[in-house]
Amino acid sequence: MFTPRAQNPALAALLTLMAAAFAAGTTLLAKALGTGVLGAPMHALQISHGRFLFALLAISAVTAIMRPRWTRPDLGLHAKRSGLGWGGVTLMFAAAAFIPLSDATAISFLNPVFGMMLAIPLLGERVGPTRWTAAAIALLGVVILTRPGTGAIEVGVLLALGSAVCLGGELIFIKRLSGREGPYQILLINNAIGLGIATLAVIWVWSAPSAPQWAALAGIGVLMALAQTCFVNAMARADASFVAPFFYTALVFAGLYDGLIFGVWPDAISIIGAGVILSGAGLLAWREGRLRPVTQRDL
Q: Which stretches make up the EamA domain (predicted)?
């Protein structure tokens, strides 16, 4: 997926931490837009449109500077990946308006779990007991975050779960694109197709943004582009099994942003649920890291 660079774990860790901070920043701005902090509450479809619009502009600028080598793209795979990515991003932005950012971010870490499940019918992968155990642990964390006994499941939890399913499906197509095309080509095509989908979807809910809302939309797009660029470059400098755990700090950044800006701090249930989800996701990441050098089957 990218041109390997000289191994530099320290730089890879720093780049991943930056990617996590930037990614959490996008949900913070989405929450500000969706809850009416910057004007009339903005529909998630319009927030998503702004994300793809400004991310495409930012990545186009980076691509023009980097001048990467281009190969013939598989537009079919790109379309499927981009459609799922757009759905995942839109649902995540919608969820951010209903539940604490720490909860929404924690649930988003289920995407590799759903990716693993979808890989069974779509890629023919075998999944053994260790990976199923990891998935069960992570899903238990979501059950905790639903706060059983309250009598109702938060709409935001369902939206975040939908986002995780979409992003898990997106992982399937990212796997199929890996090794075939360069990272900047993938990011550019992904955001271009995503913008096309978002433009068609936003027609029905479009309203003229205020100046602060335009600034927030631009911020979401630029932060997302920065997060993607940092993460891609981190992956080029260290193994995925080393890089992935550092991205879990997005949960810390999300909780910090939510507390400082909105005064919403994670409660005990949020912390326990997030911890359980991260335990399952971490176990899955560890297992995947051990599988890849040897075999693709979970023995």
A: 12-146, 156-284
Q: What's the pLDDT band for 288 if we cut at 50, 70, 90?
A: low
Helix (H, G, I), strand (E, B) or coil at 296: coil
**Pick from 168, 145, 116: nearest CA to 284:** 116
Q: For residue 147, is it left (φ>0), alpha (ψ between -120 and 50) or beta? A: left
Quick: pLDDT tens for 16-28: 899 999 999 999 9
Count CB atoms within 10 A of the CB of residue 132: 15
Residue 124 φ/ψ, nearest 5 degrees: 70, 25
156 and 104 in contact (C-beta within 8 Å)? Answer: yes
**Average pLDDT, whole number, for the chain?**
84
- Residue 110 DSSP label: T
Note the pLDDT of residue 291.
Answer: 57
- The angle that helices 9-34 and 44-66 make with each other, rounded to 10 degrees, is 150
- Contact assessment for residue 44 and residue 256, using Cβ atoms and an 8 Å cutoff: no
Supply 95's token pair: 């969820």
Nearest to 237 by CA among 13, 17, 12, 19: 12
Domain ranges across the chain: 9-291
d(CA 284, CA 204): 40
Q: How far apart are CA 150 and CA 147, in angstroms?
A: 6
Q: What is the pLDDT of residue 112?
A: 79
Q: What's the CA angle centered on 182, arms 74 and 202, to 5 degrees?
A: 60
User: What phi and psi, each to the nearest 5 degrees, are found at residue 66?
Assistant: -75, -30
Which tokens hold the place of 192?
Answer: 């271009």
SS3 of 151, please?
A: coil
